[in-house]
Amino acid sequence: MAFIEGNIVRIYMKDFLTFDEMELCPKPHLNVIIGPNGTGKSTIMCGLALVLSNKTTVTGRGKEVSEYVKHGKEMAVIEVEIFRGQSRKGGNLVVRREFNKANANQFYLQGQSVSFKEVDSNLKKLGIQVDNLCQFLPQDRVVEFAKMNSMQLLENTEKTVGGQQLYNQHMQLCSRGGDLQQLRQRQQQIREQHQTEVDKNQRVDAEVQNHHKRAQLQREIEKLQQRRLWFLYTKLRVDHIERKKNRDALVAELKALKDRWQPDVDRITAVKNDSEDMKKKILIEERVVSNISSEATSLESRLNDFVEQRQDAVRDYENKEKVHHQQQRQLQDLHKQLATIESQIETLDEQEGKIGVMDEETLTRAINELTLEGQGLSRRLAGVQEEALEVQDTRRNHLATARDLKQRIDNLNDTSQRRLQLLQQRHRDAYQAAIWLQQNTNRFKDVVYPPICTLLNVLSPEYAQYVEDRVPRADLIAFVCRDKDDVNLLKRFTDEKRWTINIVHSGSDDLSQFRPDKPEHYIKNLGFDTYLLQTIEGPGAVLHYLCKTYKLHNIPVALGDKVNVQRVLKDFMSFYIADSRYTQSRSRYSNDVMTNLSQVQKPMLLTQNLQHDRLNALNEQLRQLQQEINSKEERLKCLHASETELSRAIEEKRRQKQQMLQQRNNRKTLLARRDHKQEQINRTAQDQVNLADALALKEHKMQLASRDALKAAEGLCELRQRHCSAKHNLVIMRAYYKYQCDSVTELTNAFQEMEETVALKKQEVNDATMRVRESMRSGQDTLAELLRSLGLEKPTEIDEEVRSRFNAGIQGLEATEEELNKIEAHRDCLVTADSQVVAEFNQRKKNIENLALQLEKLTTEEQRGTSDLMAMRAEWLNSINKLTETISASFSRLMARMKCAGEVKLSTPDNEDDLSKYGLTIWVRFRGSEKLRELTAMQQSGGERAVSTALYLLALQTMSTVPFRCADEINQGMDAENERQMITMLVEHMTDLNASQYFLVTPKLLPNFPYNDRVNVICVINGPKVACKIPVEAAIKRKKKLNSKGK
């Protein structure tokens, strides 16, 4: 068995997913990788995919390489050795990939660091395609194979069995088809654009012709407008000369009026000037009066300040006098305190003389002994406190555990909520009605029970299936009313809300009438456990209805199968044994008794029951835990008592030590206090206020203030005299100013008539001047417009030729305007296009010519491209049809061996030129009564998809020349027969001498299967205690020896 180029020779992994370190050397044909779940079979395929590809998506697992590093490690290493033949330089191809938790990774080729692009180039030369599901199918991507659309399946099949040339030809066809489609779209766009431009020009052709006619009329209008301007300017020049003469006459009249009234104007002006001078003098005098008032106010303020200074001097002296008296009292107090301290020192001396005081050394030794005793007590106290904390922690943990147990007990006791949740899943109308009933119980006369399945408690879960089998589902979700009127009322409410539920009536709680026909010891002798009624608990009315309707009190049940059925048939019409229900019925025609046997289904509604055993165990656990809590609380009380006693003893030692320290420090304290008080007395005596100096200072300040106040009073009297004189002058000036104002008013009234006359004359002059300016401006504007129309700059450029032109033809302004209006009316009646439309018309004419040339060129290119594409498509279709027929024949043959049918078809799109829409579809049939159906992720079961996928891949393998293939648990979901058939065909094909290398991952080997020597079985055994190397050969020999002994 020799390797071929591209075969995997060795796989090495370190710190990768579940592996610490692993090395695997596969064989050149079929390699079956087996092992228990979780040992790392798929990890080998995953590592092989990651080292041969730069994309984590090929594994179908994590998206980041850091997710593949083993937990607790920082970096993973994967290395694969690929056979390259004996003639190649450098030997086999060794690819290595290292990556870490930070998603940093590096590829190595022959031990040298390289980019993945270089690795991929070498792999493609060997025909390795890891991203092709037909060649490499990991466990997590098995389902993706069935999800591939027909186009993806065709492309992957081409890569696998058609060769790179066929795939490249397909891709080239798709590209050329797309280019041709774009060319046709461009051709259609230009054709439509060309037609659009032609249509647009046809629509505006008449308007463009009118535009040219309008231009001709416009030129005639311009000539007439020049003639009109010539005659208009002549008329305006004559009018201007007449208006100028009229204005000059009015100006002369105005001058004569002004000369006659000028003396009166001069007199009024002189009086106005005098009055203005007097007004200024009045303002000056008013400012003088105001300034005098301000100075007087300032002097009054200063006078008040001097009085306040006298008062401040008196207040300062009084404050110093108060401070002096206070200092005297403070000195007296300090002397008293000093005397008290000296008395205490004398008393202390007397006491020490009477009782005798310990010397300094003895006192220090006694204090140290008390300190040691206190420390010992403190350590004992710390020990007690530490134990108390431990007891408290233990008690706290016990309390938390007790709360948890109570919660679990409450959860076991409160099964109604779980039953309602289950009811919500199984029957929503009944659930909504039960919730409504909880909120509206007061509307009914008597008790209305919610659905029976929420009330029944099966004492043992094994009996739930019998209760559900005996009581129909409609009654398990039925509501039970004790009063018949409540039945009708509840029915009306539920009909209004459109709820579909069942309502029954049971008016009695008495179960005494429902006694079994046979006593319980009798059925136990037959092998039964009990009656069905004894297995459930519930309200009396509910059980009364069930017994009355379904005879639960007469239905025996047996969990085991030790009951003699023939003995039981004569006593009971219905009973349960193990998972079976026995029911007897009598024929209406022959009167024969028939026994029906049916399977009991698993319970659906009565799965939430009160667990008495579990509840009792939890209660007992809670009781024991409560006893421990009580014990801890008693111990805690004792510890607290010890803590209190030790704290008192420590406090007593501390008090004795304090007394000794106080005795040692008492004399020092008293002496220090005496020195401090003496120092305070000296400092207070030095800082004492001198009343004589303070009195002299007060007298001096008062004398200065009195002198300044006298000067201020004298200045104030002088200012008041000046103020009276200034006010008198101001009154006289105001009277004279009033006289002048009255004179001006009298003269102004007399002059008003004269001003009105002059004003009217001025207005006439202004109006005449405005008319002259208007005529001059109109003439200038008309002349300028005439010059512009003639193309001249100055009036002097108008020569005899121009004048003779205007003198010939139509004469006069009116005749010229009449002819001009006539031609303008003709022009305005024409419907024409504007200049932009004409420009667009001309531009479109050019575009139409260009588009015609482009359309001709594109048509030639489209015809040539279509011809080339048809030839290439015919060649490709011929190859792909042959390939499809070959694959379909092989696939059909393999499916036939599985007693099924299947074929592979080439799907063709509606647009045959769209080569990207061609695809492969797999059609399968697993039952003879069915038709062939396309393989999809929805139409077939998981096992059917697994069989189809495996056989399709096997069909491809008989045709392709890839160096190796991988399939991870492709047999998952197959039944035993299909799995054996598939593995048989796989071994037949893959152990052929010309077959490529194959890796099949499966959780087990089929028993008694005839594997040959070309099958290499690789067992993956992983765990914390597995040795690095297992003596496989010794284990095989030992097994053979044991088998021979057994025979």
Automatic annotation (TrEMBL):
Q: Which organism is it from?
A: Hyalella azteca
Annotated Gene Ontology cellular components are: nucleus; Smc5-Smc6 complex
Q: Indicate whether Membrane appears among the record's keywords.
A: no
Q: Which Pfam families match?
A: SMC_N
Q: Which Gene Ontology terms describe the biological processes this protein takes part in? A: double-strand break repair via homologous recombination
Q: What is this protein called?
A: Structural maintenance of chromosomes protein 5
- Which parts pass through the membrane? none
Q: Does the keyword Coiled coil apply?
A: yes
Give the UniProt keywords, A-Z: Coiled coil
What Gene Ontology molecular function terms does this protein carry? Answer: single-stranded DNA binding
Give the domain of life: Eukaryota
The residues forming a coiled coil are 180-227, 317-426, 608-666, 744-771, 813-861
Q: Which InterPro entries match?
A: P-loop_NTPase (IPR027417), RecF/RecN/SMC_N (IPR003395)
Tell me which family the UniProt entry assigns to this protein.
Belongs to the SMC family. SMC5 subfamily.
Q: Which residues form the RecF/RecN/SMC N-terminal domain?
A: 8-1002
